[in-house]
Specification:
34% of the residues lie in helices and 31% in strands. It is α/β, with parallel strands linked by helices. It has two domains: 1-35; 39-142, no CATH class. Strands 7-1-4-3-2-6-5-8 form an eight-stranded mixed β-sheet. The radius of gyration is 24 Å and the shape is flat. The protein starts with a helix and ends with a helix.
Length: 155
């Protein structure tokens, strides 16, 4: 057997061993995370750019992730997400769709309330703020600029 063939076989074995290790680490991590989390939901009218797997943040720090998005009977979007059981939110907390910069990814920012009652597994966050539509915002800025320009043109 040549040296090149031995190196190729050793590399293939190492590659497959690494795949198995990463798979085992990934599946054990998922099992632990599921047991240590609880699911909440929120309804938004518009969630432009939000996808499954995006962050849930509290005070700017990632604390969870979106697990599902689905339309409700009134064409709103029900967003389900997981949070660690160590994070206890008051039942009057809010959620807002935010963006990481102008063209950055979207995430949900949680805004804790002041109630003494707390949200439990499967509860809904009632107070939500939709995703800002950047196209509409840009259209408004452009139309205001045009109107301002026209106003200054007229004698």
């Amino acid at each position: 057997m040549t040296v090149e063939k031995k190196e190729l076989i050793a590399g293939a074995i190492t590659f497959f061993a690494a795949l198995i290790v990463f798979y085992l680490i990934g599946t054990s991590g998922l099992a632990e995370n599921k047991a240590d989390t609880y699911t909440l939901s929120a309804r938004f009218n518009q969630t432009e750019g939000l996808i499954v797997g995006n962050d849930i943040r509290l005070a700017g720090i990632k604390v969870g992730q979106i697990t599902s998005l689905q339309l409700d009977d009134y064409f709103g979007v029900i967003v389900r997400f997981n949070l660690p059981k160590s994070i206890v939110l008051p039942d009057d907390s809010g959620a807002a769709v935010q963006s990481s910069g102008l063209i950055g990814s979207k995430y949900i920012e949680l805004q804790p309330g002041g109630s003494e009652e707390v949200l439990q597994e499967g509860d809904f966050i009632e107070f939500t703020q939709d995703s800002p539509n950047l196209q509409n915002l840009l259209d408004k800025v452009i139309s205001m600029a045009k109107a301002n320009k026209q106003k200054h043109k007229c004698p």
